[in-house]
Structures are given as C-alpha cells and as structure tokens.
Amino acid sequence: MAAIGLLELDLMIPDAHSLKEKRAVIRSIKDRVRNSYNVSLAEVAEQKKYQRSHLAVVAVATDRKEVEKRFNGVQELVEITPGAILLTRMVQWL
C-alpha cells in the first residue's frame, strides 16, 4: 500500500523587504527541492506577506520510511537556505 505524506513548513524570511526579494528565496528553495527530491511543492499561504511563507510538500512512495526520508531531506535543504528561517514543521499522513 502506498504512503502519502503532507509536509507543511512555516518560514520567516527576515531580510526580504519586498515580495520580489521573498520570491527569490522561495524560488531558490522550490528549484532545489524539485531537483533533489521527487516531491510536489507549493506556497499555499502568506503569499502577500514579504517576510513569511507557508510551503506545502507532498510525497508519494511505496512506504512511509521513504516519504519520511524525502521530508527530512527537504527540511535540511530549507534549513541551509540563506535568508530563510524554518519556524514550524508539521507532517500529516493521508
């Protein structure tokens, strides 16, 4: 049976002083995540706030351990992104 997981990440981007600066940081995260992991990612909230972002990441795999491995990799990638601070992380299983 397949495992489907939803990872939600709440981010602060303290150095962004415009939506353009925020989008550059988010675009960098999205591009690196999509190139490194087989997941879908979207900004689902806080689009109009230039120092906050809420990302949703969905992964499907044959087992839960594989999904958790991808999510841990995504979190590590976000944590090392210059200009982004991870505030909260929440995982749901579907």
Put the structure in a nutshell.
The protein is α+β, with helices and mostly antiparallel strands and 94 residues long.
Structural overview:
By secondary structure, this protein is α+β, with helices and mostly antiparallel strands. The chain is built from 2 helices and 4 strands. The chain has one domain: Alpha-Beta Plaits, CATH 3.30.70.1120. The chain has helices spanning 19-36, 64-79, and strands at residues 3-12, 40-45, 52-61, 85-93. The chain has a 4-stranded antiparallel β-sheet with strand order 2-3-1-4, with helices on one face. Strand 2 (40-45) and strand 3 (52-61) form a beta hairpin. It is elongated. It starts with a strand and ends with a strand.
Question: Which CATH class applies here?
Answer: Alpha Beta
Number of domains: 1
- Per CATH, the architecture is 2-Layer Sandwich
Helical content stands at 25-40%
Strand content: 35-45%
- Shape estimate: elongated
Q: What's the number of extended β-strand segments?
A: 4
The biggest beta sheet reads:
4 strands, antiparallel
> Within the CATH hierarchy, at the fold level, what is the topology?
Alpha-Beta Plaits
Give Rg in angstroms: 13 Å
Notable traits:
36% helix; four-stranded antiparallel sheet; 94 residues; Alpha-Beta Plaits; 4 strands; alpha+beta
